[in-house]
Sequence to fold (97 residues):
Amino acid sequence: MVRLPLTSAEVERGQRLGALLRRARGERSMLETALDAGVSPETLRKIESGRVATPAFPTIAAVADVLGLSLDELWAEVSRPEPGAAPSASGSGALRS
Fold:
């Protein structure tokens, strides 16, 4: 399967997702959070750093559950454009697997 290059909007959204998860995790360790969510610490590290801009939905759902985040609120926050940013052509982009 050939994977298409990410758009700049997808990369920015992935960076916002990572920052949101880092803030929500607070003082909780990355290891504890990852293990409680059933994902590898390296996966969580990549998501939080923005290196995985389009993580799989079940992964995000599991991490959000562990952190007590609503998926609706998470998506609203992550998909909100940055102030001064041009609107994307597709505001309904989904998290990829």
